Amino acid sequence: MKSKIFSVRMVVATGIGAALFFVLMRFVAVPSGIPNTTLNLAYAILALFAGIFGPLAGLLIGLIGHVLTDLTWGYGIWWSWVIASAVFGLIVGLFFKLYRIEDGEFGTKQLIIFNVVQIAANLIAWVGIAPTLDILMYKEPAEKVYLQGLVAGGLNTAVVLIVGSLLALGYSKTRTKAGSLSVDK
User: What are the structural domains of the chain?
Assistant: First the structure.
């Protein structure tokens, strides 16, 4: 059976993921001490959903969830950081078949792959994309935005490493491993 890009399951997961991302980012954010930079559990959820449902879900959850968060703050949409969230979800989701979370086989090897990918995705999104777009789009001072990017990337990496990994391990344990069921004769 061919898999559809927009399966009902993926669309529903994207909606739920974006809603969870929004709620966590908007209402469960801990200030970092660096202006406009917080510790967010939202990135653990984004990584988990991208790791289960793939790159399109990851991109859309990051995009929609971050836009909703920015809209409710009342300062307008900060597109540089929205794009970075979407790219983070996309990159983590690109390797979702390697993690095998949905197959119930998220072991040590998959855990390492998941975390190597999320670390690289955080570096690309928060140390590369967000600050560079801040400078290009908003004429922000480089020192300020690269510091914000480094802090955000470090915090997001730690959150996904700890909370995201635990969520992926826990969810994977609820899945039936391929070939583990047999028919009684």
Answer: 8-173 (1.10.1760.20)
Closest CA to 45 of 15, 73, 68: 15
Tell me the pLDDT tens digit for each residue of 171-180. 999 998 766 6
Q: 3-class secondary structure for 128-181?
A: HHHHHHHHHHHCCCHHHHHHHHHHHHHHHHHHHHHHHHHHHHHHHHCCCCCCCC
Q: Which alpha helices (DSSP H) does 28-78 contain, by range? A: 42-53, 55-73
pLDDT digits (tens, 9 = 90+) for 97-112: 999 999 999 999 999 9
Judge whether 170 and 163 are in contact, CB under 8 Å.
no
Closest-CA residue to 90 (of 112, 69, 68, 63)? 63
Tell the burial category of 170 from Cβ atoms under 10 Å away from its Cβ (0-12, 13-18, 19+). exposed
Rounded Cα distance, 121 and 99, in Å? 15
Structural contact between residues 131 and 146, judged by C-beta atoms closer than 8 angstroms = yes
The helix (H) or strand (E) run that includes residue 92 is helix 79-94
Backbone angles phi, psi at 103, to 5 degrees: -80, -5
Confirm if 91 and 156 have CB atoms less than 8 A apart: no
pTM over 0.90: yes
